[in-house]
Amino acid sequence: MDEPVDGDRVEVQLFSQRLGALPAAAEAHEWVGRAIGREDVRLVWCPDPSARRLDPAHARAGDHTAFADGYPVTVATTGSLRQLNEWMVSDALERGDEAPDPLPMQRFRPNLVLDCDEPFAEDRWAGLTIGGVRMRNAKPNERCVMTTIDLTSLDTGKEPIRTLARYRRSGSKTLFATNLIPDSTGEIRVGDEVLAH
């Protein structure tokens, strides 16, 4: 997307933080509004990603992100999703319920999806290098109620939070995928070699 050209800096609120943003062009607002069936949307652009610092408990001085949920990159593996879907089926049958359809990876909104047979291998990685871009593992990704919304029907259910709470709980949090922080810049492409470290 091109840089915004349509207005003065505006203030946006992202969780508890107030951040500066620039509005995108009017055509972008209109396109997003048509795509989601609403007229009251505005698309904004982050002109200074360095303004939003990351939690120092899981980041280094100078680490930052723009308007991401919490960290710059989220990585999930196909093996982890396969295991989660298998748990959901076995638990449903154990309860006497009908086996659910498998959840798609899109429910978890990862930036990167790695083809990996071993479930939850990403928990143990200190970091990754993909296509020459080095990233470190900041922390496991804590999942919220947004993952329970069907992306097509917008219906809300109990999964995957119910199953994650049984198998992937840490305190009051349910975990799926991992947050990464880039230590270098570059391009990542589908099919790039992935080195875990």
From TrEMBL:
<dbReference type="Pfam" id="PF03473">
    <property type="entry name" value="MOSC"/>
</dbReference>
<dbReference type="InterPro" id="IPR011037">
    <property type="entry name" value="Pyrv_Knase-like_insert_dom_sf"/>
</dbReference>
<feature type="domain" description="MOSC">
    <location>
        <begin position="46"/>
        <end position="197"/>
    </location>
</feature>
<dbReference type="InterPro" id="IPR005302">
    <property type="entry name" value="MoCF_Sase_C"/>
</dbReference>
<protein>
    <recommendedName>
        <fullName>MOSC domain-containing protein</fullName>
    </recommendedName>
</protein>
